């Protein structure tokens, strides 16, 4: 707005906006501005389901290069409850993360974690997988929970159908999700500086995806997620869908692919126009000894690492690679020492952020194809 510089800064601080800076083919790079900081895209968002990125301090997550992290409505509403987090000053204060936070709306977790679920037009009633207590999630309740948490990017309450499913079931579910998207938008209201993202559904059906995209455009959102994927369809089917789905969504808004993925999934999704992704893989794998490197996956549990003095990756600057040998990491993993989860999670998240930084600069320079060829060639080298 006009007025003094101060006002302008004030307006800026309250704004949520996406600046698309460069494209290379269908790949894009830019910056999402939020009152709590900028998000460089393409962005990988570490998952902090229960108000913590497991085995990581928030400052360490920041050091890996993450600009934003994720929380989950489903987990936090059950424990410690959104009302308690609100009373304690909101999720940022609670978990000591002052950057942007995106929270999922709960629909996906209810279907994958809760017991005794009952789905109606109103929403989903279910029993907590923690203590068996009964709960109800509706678009309105999901918006209220995410407001209480104080998240900067709020996801619509949707239904994510498990694949494979027949077309009729996919269509019915997508239409319900679109009605819930409208109710989510109404319940979200007008919250300057906070964003509401719609979630496209429609399975692997191009026409249903187009119908969903049109319905979301009509309602109008600050960003758009490609939902309903990474649910067991496999990479070929997912890429087939990403060959059309992202471009059915508005070009000038961020596109978020939920739940993806392995490093090569991420590169393929960025090549197809995706700006934001999240996945538990790097952090969960850090705890199970699966280590991602430029050359592919190292399973640190394997006995062949027992005497290996080399770092995981001599070109990596993370604490695990700077200070420790594979032999040490093998030892502490085998001994189930807590430091094992800390070091391997840090390395994996650092590796994922290096991947994103490499793609952002390649897209900005118009050399994304060369970068991708290098990425694929390195993984073929083997001997890791
Ligand atoms: C893994 N594959 C996958 N995850 C998915 C998630 C959960 C991500 C959420 O789940 C948490 O990690 C399990 C993450 O914290 C993330 O929160 C944003 C989805 N969420 C919604 N609302 N709608 C979808 O269509 C959807 C599709 C997914 N596919
Ligand atoms: Zn490392």
Task: Give an account of the 3D structure.
The protein is an alpha/beta fold. It has 16 helices and 16 strands. Strands 4-14-13-12-11-10-6-5 form an eight-stranded parallel β-sheet. Strands 1-2-3 form a three-stranded antiparallel β-sheet. Strands 7-8-9 form a three-stranded antiparallel β-sheet. α15 (338-365) packs antiparallel against α16. The chain is globular and about 60 Å long. The termini are far apart. The relative contact order is 0.13. Mean pLDDT is 95; it is low at 1-7. Residues 47, 49, 70, 72, 104-105, 107-108, 155, 158, 160, 199, 227-231, 258-259, 278, 280 line the site of ligand 1UD. The ligand CNc1nc2c(CC[C@H]3O[C@@H](OC)[C@H](O)[C@@H]3OC)c3nc(N)[nH]c(=O)c3cc2[nH]1 binds next to β5 and α6.
Adjacency order of strands in the biggest sheet: 4-14-13-12-11-10-6-5
Query: How many β-strand runs?
Result: 16
Low-confidence stretches: 1-7
User: How can the largest sheet be summarized?
Assistant: 8 strands, parallel
Strand content: 15-25%
Termini separation: 55 Å
- Ligand list: the ligand CNc1nc2c(CC[C@H]3O[C@@H](OC)[C@H](O)[C@@H]3OC)c3nc(N)[nH]c(=O)c3cc2[nH]1, zinc ion
**Number of separate helices:** 16
Radius of gyration based on Cα positions: 21 Å
Overall helicity:
40-55%
Shape: globular
- Structural class based on helices, strands and sheet pairing: alpha/beta
**Average residue pLDDT:** 95
């Amino acid at each position: 707005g006009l007025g003094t510089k101060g006002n302008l800064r004030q307006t800026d601080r309250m704004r949520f906006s996406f600046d698309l800076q460069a494209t290379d083919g269908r790949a894009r790079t830019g910056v999402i501005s939020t009152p709590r900081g900028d998000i460089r895209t393409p962005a990988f968002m570490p998952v902090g389901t229960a108000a913590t990125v497991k085995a990581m301090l928030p400052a360490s997550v920041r050091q890996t290069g993450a600009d934003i992290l994720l929380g989950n409505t489903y987990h936090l509403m059950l424990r410690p409850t959104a009302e308690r987090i609100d009373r304690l000053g909101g999720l940022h204060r609670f978990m000591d993360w002052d950057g942007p936070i995106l929270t999922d709306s709960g629909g996906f977790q209810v279907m994958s974690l809760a017991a005794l679920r009952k789905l109606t037009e109103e929403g989903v009633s279910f029993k907590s997988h923690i203590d068996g207590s009964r709960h109800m999630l509706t678009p309105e309740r999901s918006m209220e929970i995410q407001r209480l948490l104080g998240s900067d990017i709020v996801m619509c309450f949707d239904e994510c159908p498990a694949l494979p499913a027949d077309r009729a079931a996919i269509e019915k579910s997508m239409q319900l999700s679109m009605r819930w998207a409208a109710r989510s938008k109404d319940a979200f209201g007008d919250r300057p500086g906070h964003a509401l993202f719609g979630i496209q559904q429609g399975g692997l059906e191009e026409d249903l995806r187009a119908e969903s995209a049109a319905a979301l455009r009509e309602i109008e959102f600050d960003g758009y997620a490609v939902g309903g994927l990474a649910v067991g369809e496999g990479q070929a089917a997912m890429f087939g869908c990403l060959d059309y789905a992202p471009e059915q969504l508005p070009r000038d808004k961020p596109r978020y692919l939920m739940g993806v993925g392995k490093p090569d999934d991420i590169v393929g999704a960025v090549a197809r126009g995706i700006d934001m992704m999240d996945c538990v893989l790097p952090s969960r794998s850090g705890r199970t000894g699966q280590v991602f490197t430029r050359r592919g996956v190292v399973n640190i549990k394997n006995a062949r690492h027992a005497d290996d003095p080399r770092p995981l990756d001599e070109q990596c600057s993370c604490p695990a690679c700077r200070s420790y040998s594979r032999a040490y990491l093998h030892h502490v993993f085998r001994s189930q020492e807590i430091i094992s989860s800390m070091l391997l999670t840090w390395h994996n998240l650092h590796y994922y952020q290096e991947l994103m930084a490499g793609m952002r600069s390649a897209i900005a320079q118009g050399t994304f194809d060369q970068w991708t060829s290098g990425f694929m060639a390195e993984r073929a080298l083997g001997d890791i």
